[in-house]
Amino acid sequence: MDEHLISTINKLQDALAPLGGGSQSPIDLPQITVVGSQSSGKSSVLENIVGRDFLPRGTGIVTRRPLVLQLVNRRVKKDSHNVDSAANELIDLHVSDDKANNKSQSEDNAEEWGEFLHLPGKKFYNFDEIRQEIVRETDKLTGPNSGISPIPINLRIYSPHILTLTLVDLPGLTKVPVGDQPPDIEKQIKDMLLKYISKPNSIILSVNAANTDLANSDGLKLAREVDPEGMRTIGVLTKVDLMDQGTDVIDILAGRVIPLRYGYIPVINRGQKDIERKKTIRDALKDERSFFENHPSYSSKAHYCGTPYLAKKLNSILLHHIRQTLPDIKAKIEATLKKYQNELFNLGPESMDSPSSVVLSMITDFSNEYAGILDGEAKELSSQELSGGARISFVFHEVFKNGIDALDPFDQIKDSDIRTIMYNSSGSAPSLFVGTEAFEVLVKQQIRRCEEPSLRLVSLVFDELVRMLKQIISQTKYARYPALREAISNQFIEFLKEAIVATNEFVVDIISSEQTYINTAHPDLLKGSQAMAMVEERLHPRQPALDPKTGKPIQGQPPSAKTAAAEEKSGFFGGFFSTKNKKKLAALESPPPVLKATGQMTERETLETEVIKLLISSYFSIVKRTVADIIPKALMLKLIVKSKKDIQKVLLEKLYGNQDINELTKENEITIQRRKECKKMVEILRHASDIVSSV
Ligand code: GDP
Ligand code: MG
């Protein structure tokens, strides 16, 4: 089961490799990433773990592409092999002088082989050839001795003598460019390392030479940038054999220098001389073990030192980590797969439909989506903000309603104006109904003011409809045929503009009809007598008469009620002016050239002015209510519902029979390209999904 987990991740790694390795892949797989400065011993550690020489050696930056090294314990499927026995075997097989295993390093071994992802099916039994292939494959992308490339080489090694493990070897941190290396090589390498180790699923294997100061270790510094608490970093101390006499790494191991959750493991690799003398790894591991067992500082904890312990520990850390992260990975793969499947679906099928069916189906889609947004059925639209029909409703009931409500007739009408109009409209017959005329003149002026906000509403709604258009055609599927999308968009706007002309006329007519006839019989309008009574009441608030004996108010009819009742008889505003101008008429004076109602208003005039104001206000609020109600209805009829009903027909008329239909349905290059990418992603992720679902 355990080994199966690692091999699942290995398979995923292979499956996802075409996505460009660790850094670009949308799926972050658990892996152990090796970092350290140049010559700290990274390659040596990896070779010791594998037990074979297979990595390129030399001066300068030898590792110039990430090497994803998947170690597979090959016997795991046959028997119940456990971690401990494999670890022991690692020591035994590499260290023992057993004749059966005592083969020279380069000798072929039928039990152990390597395989590259870029050369599927080709088994490398000769590890020298593996080295050559790594060099060749590195140079292929980078050119010899020059740059680096972030595209990984995937190598899998099968052996019964290794623990299943996945490690990524990265270029060492370097300071000075050599040869024809680019001058910013240090930054390039650092960026590449950071891309790998900053992923939360990456375990950082920080390799540090024990004979240098740990506090100055570049690898550890870099690790701490992305893992400041040291929660997913494990330290390896190499070159313990090269430390000065009398010094040791005990303080570091005890966590007293730079503590790491997984701690540090000291190892000893072959030195330069050992390699020149072709010392085998087997001998090296044997010497490593005896070094730790016999060293006074380490003898008591020798089994926590050395390469076999390191391999075992890495294996268990990786397993633990995989077990923890697999459910997330599974979910991530499914979600990413779904995302690409959706995009692929939206890009539309590859098979080229006939141009006319493309036009037909895009117009149909567009019309349906437009109707859907208006009706509030567009589910994929944001829940964060109002859209479509809801926005229009907001414009109607909030924006427009408030605009109309804010119209106040009395910010334009002054009392003196009312008085002048009253005089004027009384004309030569200053008797009955003159108040009615003044009222009508003033109210009509005010009704005209409703036109401006109503026309403004039309243009607001136009903007909203255009906004919906943009929302619809910004979807990926419309990007496929840019010319057609453009044509639909233009025709839609054209159509709306035509409809706007008719809508505006209609709106102007509605306001005009309000203005043309003032319905003084409107049931909600204040009666003249009521208005009169209210004004009287306001001007002469009734003090209830007090009974001189009791000191309490006397019950009875208010005195002014009789007056109101009497005036009701003489018509709508009946008789306000009946005694008006009597004196002037009697004197027969000629009036001045500019005649204005001036001077102190008489009480009667004040009363009449106030009554007219009350009636204007009453009637105007009826008009406002009507306008707020009917203008949106008019817009629905002339613009919104009309566009919903007619747009498909109009688009078909304009575009379907079009001679340029071939031009209209030319597919976007980007769409073609993107479809290819999505197809590839879907294929890869489907495969990945199959792999994880087998766990
Ligand atoms: P890398 O650049 O980090 O991959 O380092 P290498 O593995 O190539 O090692 C650099 C040099 O240090 C080589 O000459 C190794 O032989 C030597 N070396 C690595 N580890 C040890 C060690 O533990 N002891 C000794 N004596 N030499 C080592
Ligand atoms: Mg190296």
Automatic annotation (TrEMBL):
It comes from the Eukaryota. GO terms for biological process: endocytosis; intracellular distribution of mitochondria; mitochondrial fission; peroxisome fission; vacuole organization. GO terms for molecular function: GTP binding; GTPase activity; microtubule binding. Keywords: GTP-binding, Motor protein, Nucleotide-binding. Residues 26-327 form the Dynamin-type G domain. Residues 542-561 are annotated as: Disordered. SMART domains: DYNc, GED. One of its GO terms (cellular component) is peroxisome. Residues 609-695 form the GED domain. Belongs to the TRAFAC class dynamin-like GTPase superfamily. Dynamin/Fzo/YdjA family. This is Vacuolar protein sorting-associated protein 1.
